[in-house]
Specification:
Layout (H helix, E strand, L loop, with lengths): L7 E10 L5 E11 L2 E7 L1 E4 L6 H13 L9 E7 L8 E10 L11 E7 L12 H16 L6
Length: about 150
């Protein structure tokens, strides 16, 4: 009997301070991904639940993970990634950006051990995504901000 492949859909928010000079990253606890245990610095986000849009998932994950209730109208889609065609596990990940006052109180849930605001020249070494990807999202978010798509 052939097993149906199920696609995993994720949604992550790149959270920036008000002038886009720093990005908020969360220190993630160990997680299982394809049988591997990982840990490191990553964006706010997670799985899209059934019946939920990626945008709704970003807003929900921010409430759950950092205790911030972002207005979905202020989240801007900045990109996506999909699994290679040859991959046995199919996935799609959507990325959004938002800015916030870095003095806002962050209330972490048990998925993260800590958080930090990092400037682009001092990104930590242990990131869940490549620094190239992180800097690419940063550039896209800044461009959207300059074009008036992201409002503080």
């Amino acid at each position: 009997m052939e097993e149906k492949s199920r696609e995993h859909v994720g949604a992550y928010t790149c959270v920036f301070n008000s002038d886009f000079s720093e990005m908020l990253l969360l220190w993630r606890k160990k997680e299982e991904r394809d049988g591997k245990v990982i840990k490191g610095w990553g964006n706010v986000g997670g799985s899209v639940e059934p019946g939920e849009t990626a945008l709704e998932a970003c807003a929900r994950e921010a409430r759950e993970e950092i205790g911030i209730d972002f207005d979905p109208k202020k989240l801007i889609h900045i990109g996506s990634k999909t699994s290679p065609e040859t991959s046995l596990r199919k996935w799609s990940i959507y990325f959004y950006a938002v800015s916030m006052d870095e003095s806002s109180e962050i209330k972490l849930n048990d998925e993260s051990r800590g958080y930090g605001w990092f400037d682009r020249k001092e990104l930590p070494n242990e990131t869940l995504d490549s620094k190239e990807d992180i800097l690419g999202w940063w550039a896209l978010a800044e461009k959207a901000f300059k074009n008036g798509q992201i409002h503080i």
